[in-house]
Amino acid sequence: MNIQTERLEDHRARFTVEIEPERLEKAKRAAARKMAKTMNIPGFRKGKAPYNILIQYGFEANILNDAVDDLSQEIYRETLEQVEDIEPYGPGAWEDFKLEDAPTFIYTVPLQPTIELGDYRVIRDDYEAPEVDDDLVSKAMRRLQHQEAVAEETDQPVAVGHRVTVDIHSEFADDSPETEASAEETDAEVVEEAEEHDHDHEDGEEHDHDHSHSPAKGDEFVHEHDAAIDLDPEDEPILPGFINGLVGANAGEDVEFELTIPDDEPDYEEFVGRKVKFHVTIKKVENVTMPELNDELAARITENEEEPLTLLQLRMRMRENLETEAKSRYDNQFANGVLDQIVEVSSVAFPEAMTEDQIEGMIKDFDQRLRQQGMSIDTYMKVTGMTKEQIAESYQEPAVNTIKRSLVLSKLIDVEKIKVTQKEIDAQIDKVLEQFGPQAASLRSAFDTPAMRDSIVNDVTRDKIYERIIAIAKGDDVPHPDDIVEEEDEEVVEVISEAVVAEEATAEETSTDEAEDSENAEAVVAEAESESTEVVSDEETAEEDLS
Question: Is the pTM of this model over 0.85?
């Protein structure tokens, strides 16, 4: 075979492969023998018609097509075995066959991504450690009171101090003050807004929202079902005025009201001044008897611990939890901001096939989230008027950005020699389990599965590379990777990094096979967490996967 390789601008390679005419002729005769077995030719038994007779009956083109089809996979595999400087990302495509000077097969194949990191070690950013004030601690302690409160259903109209179970639907009631977006941009916003996970307000929990774009009028704000909300005027849920919007309504009734996002709402600072229309269904109203916030309550809350805490000790722990979680959340945001800067100074190239794989995965995740809310993607398209192609197009930019970030992060892990040891994995497992108290021993076996192990490895890897990125951006004295020496007695574990956006598909065939979904190992922990009685803070810990 004579193989000519050409690298294309779109991060693909083209193979032009010439083969000997004798090989094609041999393949044609083999194809003719197969064809003869299915045909009845006068004067010959079935399957016994010779090659030249089939040609006389006008089957030469059919024979050639079958021979070329049979050869295409074989030639492609041999080509990959012989080229040395090509690393396919996934399955190739047979583009053409020519019969000019010699039988010639033409293939294209997507190439593995290439990443060249810029001078990221000179990047600096201001790091301002978050502070937790007394008011935030007091609100968290008050929520503990609500968790221990006695609730009794009532037929009374909603009043301040009640607990209500509601379905909430809300949307922006005005247009963004920014310049009106194009139709394509608006469609993208609709999809991004619909992608947000439902968040329960149960136990007064705060919510994180994606503010990376400016929603248009009619875009979703908050969407929740069976949310249990305590109407505490000192801890207004969602937005100021929400409680007053419900007061006076009865169970079974629907209420509508409009609120304006104030300038002192840190969760919605990008939307200050925007109007939001709420549609709320009151499903249940309950009287709430609050316990006294004293040492007795603190002891009851921590009764399963070795030594129950006093109210002061519980408050101190709450502050520590809030500070830890606030720092974790800030560190993630800070590291992601620095990562974006590293992406900007780096050169990343990858094939369109990688983007298509990423978009396909994102749409699949979107469909699953819709189904969890009782809606299919087909229904969503009818409601929004969008086609599947438009939805895919709206994911184009997010998919490209995700791939770039993931590839750069994966490269950083390699360049910075981030390693995970068995000791670190065991410590992470212990850290997760210690919050479950007596249940910890029974849950430990859940971490023995390959999926859960990979999840833990990636968690530790993410934490370590983020810690390194933060230290670099702060200007700390970070050792150069060449100066890092591994301890000989450390058992290093291979990192199965989620930063690799798409699993490498085999390039041995020119056809594609759809891979099965991997097990969601984190669901095991999530289910166990719902049963935990450990006192934890109401502030969410923002975690972001390597992907």
Answer: no
